[in-house]
Write a structure and sequence with these properties.
36% of the residues lie in helices and 35% in strands. By secondary structure, the protein is an alpha+beta fold. A seven-stranded mixed beta sheet has the order 1-2-3-4-5-7-6, with helices on both faces. Strand 4, helix 4 and strand 5 form a beta-alpha-beta unit. The two termini are 24 Å apart.
Length: 168
């Protein structure tokens, strides 16, 4: 089941965002960098501001009755890069490790496509860490192409995110 998040989901969203990011990236980053990032990236204030933003959309996905992951989409001025107003960004698709390999990421991706179609978006794009090979391969299978890249700083470490786009 996929459902839209509301402000009442703030604590659950904060918890799953923190946990999924930590599970995904801790092993490949310095402890102090990941710890500092997690302290600032998922604060109460930031999560609340994002949930209340009318140009951002959050969705939970469940495996049975258990919260298993989430999706964050951005349009217009909320996109993290300066793309067109008729583009949509997939900022986050995160699934808890224990629920991976059940097709939940693909379901969230399909949900993003449905949302993009409902908003008459022409393209969908995302940024993905160059070392996240599984995600890159997933997006390639879904029809995305690498068109650019940008730097992302995790503490004192410069990392590269690939920008991938799919025409709708």
């Amino acid at each position: 089941m996929i459902r839209a998040c509301t402000i009442n989901d703030k604590s659950a969203l904060q918890e799953i965002a923190y946990q999924t990011f930590d599970e995904t990236f801790r092993a490949q980053n310095k402890k102090e960098n990941i710890d500092n990032y997690l302290k600032t990236a998922f604060t109460d204030e930031k999560i609340e501001r994002e949930l209340l933003n009318p140009e951002s959309f959050f969705y939970f996905i469940y495996f049975g009755q258990q919260l298993a992951g989430y999706l964050k989409l951005n349009i217009k001025g909320s996109q993290t890069e300066a793309y067109n107003d008729d583009d949509m960004e997939i900022e986050r698709i995160y699934i808890l490790k224990q629920f991976q390999k059940h097709g939940l990421g693909k379901q969230l991706y399909q949900h993003a496509l449905t949302k993009a179609a409902s908003l008459s978006c022409k393209r969908i794009w995302l940024g993905v860490w160059e070392k996240n090979i599984n995600a890159i391969e997933f997006y390639k299978k879904m029809g995305f192409e690498k068109v650019d890249q940008h730097a992302f700083y995790m503490g004192d470490e410069k990392q590269i995110d690939y920008i991938m786009i799919k025409n709708l």
